[in-house]
Amino acid sequence: MIINRPVKYLLAALLATLIVVYGVEFSLRYFSGQFLMPDIYDYDPVTFTRLKPNLALRHKTDDFDVTIRTDSHGWRSDYEINPIKRSGTKRLLFAGDSITFGWGVENAETYPSLIADKLRAGGLKNVEVINLSVPSFSGYSVAEKFKHEGVPLKPDVVCAVVFINNDFKENLVLYLLARSFPYKLLGPQIFKIMLLARSSLIKSVSGYNSVVPHFLELRYLPYNGVNTALGMLLRLSIRLPDPDTMARIENNISLAYIYGLNASAKKAGIEPFFIILDIAARYPARTDKSARMLDIEGLLNEYFAGHKIKYVDLIAELRARHPEMYSLPSFRHDGHFTAEGHRLIADALYNSRPFRDLMGIKGAAGSRIY
Questions:
Q1: Alpha helices in the chain, H assignment, sequence order
Q2: Which CATH superfamily is 41-169+243-359 part of?
Q3: Can you give the pTM of this predicted structure?
């Protein structure tokens, strides 16, 4: 195809404009320290990513300004965690992704930290809560991190969080990537690239979303531009099955990871406890996405109940406690929960009958769902 001269000039001008915009915006955000993806990761051969040890990193965006701290093991904490459990201590592990990690809030404001405060205030003085969660984790990564790092900590309970808004989709993406041409070419290194492309890849694989909205806010072009470009390139390398087959694969591999974590805990004499969570407490419209989220919530309830696995459906708890609320308070640009959102989660979890029974907390539960 022959491109005439005016079109060439137009394309060249467009390219030059994009380069200038990206360069200026990149520089502004670099010197203002407002990147969305801070330098917090190391590569891990088992889980693909892990938090860098001994972090004390300021994470500033237009939504929040917090400090991410880790101990020498790469676990989020404001102090050094002793892997050896003290005699008489009841140790709880929380294992999840960026939601449970507490993206955008201080460590003391995360719902695992708030649960620790509530338990101590309620009389369990010798309780210890350790947060093993890592942003970008999938169900596979959560299960493997617990198996390799959580089990040696000898906790009494592991609270594994299933965040249905993206966990099932991330499990599918990992499954498809491991069978793609880039994986055959680059091997596990592809997952380093996926760290940058993660959200746009998930959106482009989803049948109910697209990568276009990434470009709608000029101020986030450097991060979202790279994210979207890499996501689109990886997406082109993946052969997608039909929607029904995708949903079936998502369900099967996600339940397999849950089964694996549950089995690892039982084998080690640790009590597994699963938490079902989502951004939304209810959906205002019956969209393809809302229908899929409701399907996943129902599937998990059926699976846990059928296999006699201890769990709490916090989505249902939040519906009962806050009938007027459609979604938990979250940041405008990236959707993670604000400090108020974490407080509502901690309140719902602490007052739920399954959690109170698990921890031996006396008194009436805050809802009568169970």
A1: 5-32, 98-101, 111-121, 139-145, 167-177, 181-186, 190-205, 221-236, 243-267, 288-306, 314-321, 339-350, 353-359
A2: SGNH hydrolase (3.40.50.1110)
A3: 0.81
